[in-house]
Amino acid sequence: MTTPESLQLTGRPATREEKLTALALWVLAFAALWTTEAAVGFTRDESVYFAAAEGYSQWFRLLLHSPAQAFTDSAIVRAWDYNHEHPALMKTLFGLSHLLFHDTLGVMRDATAFRLPAFAMAALVPALCFLLGSALYGRTAGWFAALSFLLVPRQYFNAELACFDMPVAAMWLLVVYCFWRALESTRWGIACGVAFGLAIATKHNALFMPFVLSPFALWRAWRASEGSTEARVRLGRFVGLFAAVAVLYGLLVVFLGGPAAFQKKFLLLSPHTLFFVGLAVGSVVLLRDLRHVSLPVTRALVPLAAMAVLGPVLFYLHWPYLWHAPVDRTAWYLAFHATHNHYAWFYLGTLMRGPPFPLTYVVVKTALTVPGSLFAPMVTGFVALVGRALLSLGARTREWVRMPTASEALVGVNAVTSILIISHPQVPHFGGVKHWFPSMPFLGILAGAAVARGCFALWEVLKARRPSVSPLAVTVPVFALLLVPALIALVRVFPYGTAAYSELAGGLPGAATLGMQRQFWSSHVTGVLPWINEHAKPGARIYLHEVNGFSFRDYQRNGMLREDVRPVNSPFDADIVAYQYHQEFREHEFLTWQAFGTRTPVTGLYLDETPQVIVYQRPE
């Protein structure tokens, strides 16, 4: 078993065995998601993305048959305008997968073909957790981080969906991994820029990454340039180039009369574009010059230049919707998320409808949803890292602990970045835990570090009494003790992942008593669809509360709901109502009582006796 003192805490290549293990973890995760996805219902967002993906795939058909027409703005807008509030990378992959595996080959059902790329992206997380965790803290930590990630019920549920929250978590982790590996190779620095471009093409969360990684890159460069005046001078020129371009853009905003005028005059042949080209060319020239003076400093700075240049270029290229009006359409996209609307959310007995939101919401929600056997090591690992950092600041306490390395600090900062962003009282709070998924792999790595330290300490004690004891004799039981309860929790709640609550919440009944959101996104309706299929009269009118028209269609297209039943938009028009239990929508149940003249449900979905979906049938 590797001792903490012997670990290599700098960027290093993975061994052949580690690469094979990571590949095996990816295959295992992908297979698990694929073989279980048929039971998972369609969330409102997912069905919207299904529809968008189909539209995008039709553009690729047009591209093959009539390229000149496909590149016109009218054809692009017709195909890509729908759901343009999100980047197109994942929806494009969903659409192409559906076009190949469902439309062309006919080997998969509708939903599975859409979801396949999402499985591939989500499966990257365990593989990358193993590689980074093993390199920083040893393979015991890497294994725990990898195995534990998808055992969190809400994370496994989201990994099944053709949505963006799990893919952007995977891309965030990939960017950080490439950034860390850039210590050893310039090519990894370029890969970091490519990964960042793909990350911002996945979801807007990734736009925060340069602010997280830049301080580490500059700190690396500063430390690497110690003792070399030439390296320091060139480092100053590199930073000066970026600062000068930032100042020039700021002056343009001022002199042109504000952001609106700046946006209006941002054309292909304009100072705006010239400054970006100057940044790109200047970065390459400066880095080439610096390479002859100090390779370590160069490697530290390459990721910054690559993200600054390749990120925007890949974002533009991946999204045809931007091609004819990149500035205006990108500005609309950014403004949409900067002013995102707020959805009502039930939290500790309070129906939150708008800001300011509780500062502790994210931490409390995480504690109440992550299985306790996984949450405790996360807290332990993070507190240990912070404690070591604080103790290392004092002259008297510095010798008590090993100061955290820059690589450990990188993991720690990324473990809290998404959490801190969403914790801001003015940021919309909804969607359960999915908006801070990018933090969870790093918390898993810190959990793995805590478990590895515990296993090593226990092994040392046992070895003193029985020298022949194997490290596996300690690691396997500890892993089982921590992972099996999470697996049981996952199996118990599957496929109703948005209802998952931990032991700390008292499970689902305890969370309901606490006044927490019982479920959301409408996917739990699959629990009552078999009853509706059996009991609905021919041509029955069905009101599936919170299920949008796309999802209703998808349930029918995938054989989960009879094709003869019809959707309606009100209990008063319906023969059967499936009410999704939401505190903010309680009036829909009251309206159903009024429309049907009864308060007695005919069936429902109850998890641990907690109502999730309640079905009413109009009396004959």
Structure description:
It is a multi-pass membrane protein. This protein has 620 residues and is mainly alpha-helical. It has 26 helices and 7 strands. It has a 5-stranded mixed β-sheet. A two-stranded antiparallel sheet has the order 1-2. A hairpin with a 2-residue loop joins β1 and β2 (350-352). α7 runs antiparallel to α8 (139-149) and α10 packs antiparallel against α11.
Provide the fold topology.
Layout: H1 16-36, H2 44-65, H3 67-70, H4 73-80, H5 89-104, H6 110-122, H7 124-137, H8 139-149, H9 153-159, H10 165-181, H11 186-200, H12 209-224, H13 229-256, H14 259-264, H15 271-291, H16 295-318, H17 326-338, E1 345-347, E2 350-352, H18 361-369, H19 372-391, H20 406-423, H21 440-465, H22 471-493, H23 507-514, H24 529-535, E3 541-544, H25 549-557, E4 566-567, E5 576-580, H26 586-596, E6 603-607, E7 610-617
Helix pairs in contact: 1-6, 1-7, 2-4, 2-5, 5-6, 7-8, 7-10, 7-21, 8-21, 8-22, 10-11, 11-16, 12-16, 13-15, 15-16, 19-21, 20-21, 21-22
